[in-house]
């Protein structure tokens, strides 16, 4: 049973007969805003580890990126490693191929683990 007139609901919700209270319960919870500086720092540390695991130098990585039509300077790659810059999504796809990762999302650092209260 609907408890409202449907004002403000999308047409699909109106057709399905879902009331406003149900839609509010289904809404995603509020998320904390990401701190870009911390994300860049985490990315830099993670990317350095990936480079070391692959045994690549900055110069070798730049050459391999150039073969894939992704042209970056060595200084730009060092900025990624320091965490002062972030690669584009297209560059991440190329980096995943070069670093032999299963998916381009593995170039990104893992989410920080929440600490459990004891």
Number of distinct beta strands: 0
Give a short account of the largest sheet.
none
Low-confidence stretches: 1-6
**Tally of helical segments:** 6
CATH architecture of the domain at 36-107: Orthogonal Bundle
CATH topology name of the domain at 36-107? 434 Repressor (Amino-terminal Domain)
Tell me the overall shape: globular
Radius of gyration: 22 Å
Order of helices and strands: HHHHHH
Question: What does it look like?
Answer:
With 118 residues, this protein is mainly alpha-helical. 52% of the residues lie in helices and 0% in strands. The chain has six helices and no strands.
What tags apply to this protein structure?
118 residues; 6 helices; 434 Repressor (Amino-terminal Domain); mainly alpha; globular
Précis, in short:
With 118 residues, the protein is mainly α. It has a domain at 36-107: lambda repressor-like DNA-binding domains (434 Repressor (Amino-terminal Domain)), CATH 1.10.260.
Walk me through the topology.
Elements: H1 11-16, H2 20-26, H3 36-54, H4 58-67, H5 74-82, H6 89-98
Helix pairs in contact: 3-5
């Amino acid at each position: 049973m609907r408890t409202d007139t449907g004002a403000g609901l999308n047409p699909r919700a109106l057709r399905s007969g879902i009331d406003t209270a149900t839609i509010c319960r289904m809404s995603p919870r509020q998320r904390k805003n990401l701190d870009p500086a911390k994300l860049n720092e985490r990315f830099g540390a993670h990317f350095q580890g990936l480079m070391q695991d692959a045994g690549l130098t900055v110069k070798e990585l730049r050459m391999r990126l150039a073969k894939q039509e992704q042209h970056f300077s060595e200084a730009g790659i060092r900025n990624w490693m320091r965490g002062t810059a972030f690669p584009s999504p297209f560059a991440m796809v190329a980096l995943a191929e070069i670093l032999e990762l299963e998916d381009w999302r593995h170039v990104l650092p893992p989410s920080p683990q929440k600490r459990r209260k004891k």
